[in-house]
Every structure is written in C-alpha cells, then in structure tokens.
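Researcher: Here's a chain I'd like modeled. Treat it as a single chain, no partners, no ligands.
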Amino acid sequence: MKAGAPTEREKTPWLDLPEEFRSKRAIELETLSTELAVSHPEESALLYKPEPVDTSKVQLNDEILGLTERLAENAHEVWAQRRMADGWRYGPRRDEAKKEHPSLVPYKDLPEEEKEYDRSAALETLKVLRALGYRFDKAPQGGLDIGPGSYRKRYQDK
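Model: Modeled as a single isolated chain. Structure tokens:
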C-alpha cells in the first residue's frame, strides 16, 4: 500500500466500525489513531481533551475582581445585541423556529444561575489574562468608559 493512502478502516463509515474503534475505551487502549480521527470527525470528538490555561495560582485584587460583574453584564449585552440583530426576540422559552429566547432581557432581570454563568466566564477571562502576563491599568477619571450606554454613566446617573 502507498504511504499516505487511507486504510480500509479509515474509509469505513463511523457506525460500521467495530465498537472497539468507536468507544472511549479505544482511546485508552490506543486503538484509536489520529489518522482515523481525522477521517472520522465523530472520533475526533472522542480524542478532544480541553486544556485551558492554568489559572489555579492567579490572584486578583478586589478592584480587578470588581470588574467581573461589569464584564458579565457586557457579555450578556453583546450576546443579546447579536441575537436581536439576527431577528431573535424575547419569548417565555427558547424556540429556534420562532427565534425566541427567555434570556433576551436586561442583565439585571436574568435568573441568578445565568448571571453566575456569565460571571464565571468573565472571571476566568480576567485570570487568563493575568496568567498570560498582562497587567490591568485603569484609565483616569473621565477615561474611556463615559460614552453613551457606558456602565459608569448608567450607574452614576442613578
């Protein structure tokens, strides 16, 4: 056989492969090759092992931790803006066909578990930036966060 030519196993449809080549056990037994995974995306998913940046030793000061809520709210606002631009609107439950979603409400009105999801992503983003060597410096009063719709302006006016 020519080098680089697909093997019979690589040409076999995923569901027709024997179980020992389709299971997570195949990874453990090393019967699952990377070549086979490339030819069968379903197996690629079995090979995938998330390897996020290690942030376990990152310490953030209180001021930076305070950004978590702001970033979480902003992430929700960006998500909602994109959804609405794509024709989505509020609905009591998610409905792909009608393009309705119950989370298309202001951040303050989200259920706590959804806010916590956004907070977790925001906090992890801050920690990754620190782990990668970035520093945070706040702009002086009157800095960048004063435009229309800005967080600072919204809450200073209340």
